[in-house]
Amino acid sequence: MSVDLGMPGVRSQPAATPHDPLRWGPSFPDAARGTLANTQMRANLRHATHTIRDKRLAVTAELPDWEALRDAGSAIKADVMARLPELLERLEESVTARGGVVHWARDAAEANRIITDLVRAAGAREVVKIKSMATQETGLNEHLEAEGIEAAETDLAELIVQLAGDQSSHILVPAIHRNREEIREIFTERMGDAPEGLTSEPRDLAMAARAHLRARFLRADVAISGANLAIADTGTVAVVESEGNGRMCLTLPRTLITLMGIEKVLPSFADLEVFLQLLPRSSTGERMNPYTSMWTGVTPGDGPQEFHLVLLDNGRTKALADEVGRSALHCIRCSACLNVCPVYERTSGHAYGSVYPGPIGAILTPQLLGLGEAHGAGSHDVTATLPFASSLCGACYDACPVKIDIPSALVHLREKGVHADAHPSLTPMGAGMAVAAAAMTSGTRFRWATRLLTLAGRVIPGTRIRRLPFPGSLWTRSRDLPVPPTQTFQDWFASRERDAGRGTGEGA
Amino acid sequence: MSAPDARTEVLARVRAALATTGAATRPGPGPGGGASAGPLPHDDGPGTDGHVPADLRDPHAPGPVPREYRRADRSAPVTPGRLDLFVERLEDYRARVVRVDEGGLRAALVAELRDAGPVAVPPGLPGPWVQALQEEGLELLVDHPDRPLTPAQLDGAGAVLTAARVGIAETGTVVLDAEPDQGRRVLTLLPDRHVCVVLAAQVVADVPTAVDLLGEHPERPMTWISGPSATSDIELVRVEGVHGPRDLRVLVVEA
Description:
The structure holds 2 protein chains of 2 kinds.
Chain A: H1 28-36, H2 39-61, H3 66-82, H4 84-97, E1 101-105, H5 108-121, E2 126-129, H6 133-138, H7 140-146, E3 150-153, H8 156-164, H9 180-190, H10 202-219, E4 222-225, E5 229-231, E6 236-241, H11 245-251, E7 255-261, E8 265-266, H12 272-283, E9 291-296, E10 306-312, H13 316-320, H14 336-340, H15 342-347, H16 358-369, H17 395-399, H18 406-419, H19 428-440, H20 443-459, E11 464-465, H21 473-476, E12 481-482, H22 489-504
Parallel strand pairs in A: 1-10, 2-3, 2-4, 4-7, 5-8, 7-10
Antiparallel strand pairs in A: 5-6, 6-9, 11-12
Chain B: H1 6-21, H2 80-92, E1 96-101, H3 105-113, E2 119-121, H4 127-135, E3 140-142, H5 151-156, E4 159-162, E5 166-168, E6 173-176, E7 193-199, E8 203-204, H6 207-214, E9 222-225, E10 230-231, E11 239-240, E12 247-254
Helix pairs in contact in B: 3-4
């Protein structure tokens, strides 16, 4: 047993607080080496992803028109992207007409500054928060803390993550990397008012969180939320949740501040009929989530009497400029792609080094940061490794409720990342590709190149090569290589033709 | 002002991004509303003659929205099968359901609320429901618009009784739209037991029909409720009742 004098028992995961929520830690391959070694986390994740996956399949199979809903969802999102300026202006008009105030933020820093000023104007020193990917993306909590404002996460998983000093590892269940015993320890050590003798039973832990947050809800003057969607025609904003902490935040405080990515706007109220079917079934695998709240500006006498909607760009317009990559903006943050991804299941969310992990994160994160831009670091940027964090198996595409073709976007971004290098042929990948291109553009050269390889096949024993000398080691450090066959296909085919010609007389 | 404001700049970036890909040239919706039909000025790329088969087109390219899914049908009569499904789906998500006819409603209301302690009620609850509780001697906390209950008062209430706007059979959902027979949103949030009366005629088959109906008043604050508050955040073990009411009881009234 190790004793760390003066050190807390709970260690945050990852150890250091990231500077940039979209880009922290080492590159994906290096981070994955560490997370793959954490067998407890892999077991937790396997159990979690398989459970949600099965639930999702069961409830999507119940609907006879599931595929038609996906088609509609995909088309609505494509239409939204094409008409984004007009829809955003319409949304602003609708929200304003109903007594809300709309703000615009070019980047994370601007969004954080706007929100901090609004909290100060409301005279609050503490705020309650609903789980929100957008505020995680901007690092709002850390910013508020630096400004002397305490932000309390109220979603159970976010509370666990916040108390532990962790980063979330899953879009839907952010504390999936922690088991019940660890959570008991986190609550006991960090919550301040955890009951004596708290057990590790999930029910006891949830009730401790309920008691801990109840007083905060009742005294909070300001709440901060994200938004699952907003309707341009009516100004209606919706938050989809399970625990009721969202309803508390959206109902009790006097002031509500909502941060929303510009891509979340939908044209009309009727579009809810598509997304309120796609989202819950894809996300938690339920026919409907326990609570969905919708509000339109300010309703006198009911709920917050001051409403601010902050519209966030923060790289979304960079993604929008890429005709293939743009589809990443169709994402409704359901996390179905995480739960079916063989890479995510084994490496965990922390390996992606971004608030957006998994397949969608692998295409969204590099684009929000501007992969391949002139001032970017090209393929040496840590985020440039993200599009390679996939086996391209396509399970994410099949699971996506709005049919984002993630595999195609991954391939597109891989290419973009490689071409971002000033001298692509000077990289090991570039050099290898140049050699391959030389061999493959001529039938004769290809025949002799492959015949050369069969020599290796004859001298190397076994069926797999585990380690090659440099530069081949760049390949074999993360993959095995099959031993080349002792005969090329072309030679085999020619001999077969000769044999067949003798037997039946049917020749070319 | 030398630097453009954030609004101007974000909108300019969006327009510039669309202009680089040609998507902004696409016409908006016609006067009839909805996405425009007809061929798109979409760039099919070099080397094609523009006649790309539908299944080879970029699946993310904007175009008319296909709505081949089951659409709203408000004229479909309420069948016993629909009510059965509504009840089954509510129970599947751990709501307690009581089916009564109109004559049995009084007794059912009393039975579900008698042991709860003070009962919060919205200002516009049907008279006979209120009478039933008063005659039974239950303590009622009425949320008058000019004398609204404080959060502390609501926190001390044992239950809340409301009507509903619409029930959705396929998902086992009850939707409240904050009209006087349902009250402010906070009313159904703080008391630990929510007793909700849904009339059979209010139960629709599916989500599109409910959205169609609610779309008549999109400005009303809405709360969609499907079972009691729940979380699966710890090892995906479902725990009912975190912050919202832990006890949801739905009285389905058949004519």
